[in-house]
Amino acid sequence: MAKAEVININNEKVRELELNDEIFGVKVRRDILHEIVRMQRANRRAGTACTKSRGEVRGSKAKPWRQKGTGRARAGHKRSPLWRGGGTVFGPKPRSYEIRMPKKVRRLGLRMALSARFSEDNLRVLDEFRMEEFRTRKFVETMNALDLSNALIVVPERDEKLEKSSRNVPGFKVITSAGLNVYDILLHHKLVILEPCLGQLEERLLS
Fold first, then answer.
1. Dihedrals phi, psi of 70, to nearest 5 degrees
2. Do 109 and 71 have their domain in common?
3. Closest CA to 194 of 1, 7, 52, 2
């Protein structure tokens, strides 16, 4: 089994623990990670862009002038896409960009992302991390002590003080283990996991 050091917020080693190879020792396939990231980004799109066609814009259907004899170009009505205020040709309409993948593949991708961070030595395990007050400066001081400039911090449950203390610091994001995903892991250089989250991840990914 792979081993990892558990450290405290002062970057001091507390103890050593064994990591489950089924989660942190999986062979990484870039094609699977690519497809999952593509799926996540597509599913986040709102798909609400909408334009009006010539049949939906406001305006008369009457022919502006006769077909011949005026010296001007032919015109059917003022809602033509050629006219200012007319309809849009082949414009966007509300649609879903959703991409679906099997649950087993999504779980496998998450295990691969965790394994990638561990193999790169970009995984840190903290014994605990609590903020006594809403204080961005204190959060920055802790990250400096841990020698982190860009990291995803995984907590067992929502911590409002920690979330609000970190939200104005570029390069950092706090997320619960239930919401952990491939895109956020790959987006950040380092992965910081609180020790209680390891059991939650095993239950989520191996059940």
1. -95, -15
2. no
3. 7
pLDDT in tens, 76-123: 999 999 999 999 999 999 999 999 999 999 999 999 999 999 999 999
Q: Which two tokens stand for residue 70?
A: 């005026």
The helices-and-strands tally (H runs, E runs) of the chain is 7, 6
User: Sign of the C-alpha dihedral, residues 158, 186, 110, 7?
Assistant: negative
90 plus 189 within the same structural domain = no
Evaluate whether 4 touches 125 at the Cβ level (below 8 Å). yes
Q: What is the Cα–Cα distance from 169 to 176, expressed in whole angstroms?
A: 18
Question: For 184-201, what is each residue's pLDDT tens digit?
Answer: 999 999 999 999 999 999
Reduced to 3 states (helix: H, G, I; strand: E, B; else coil), residue 194 is strand
Same domain, 120 and 191: yes
Same domain, 41 and 124: yes
Q: Record the pTM.
A: 0.86
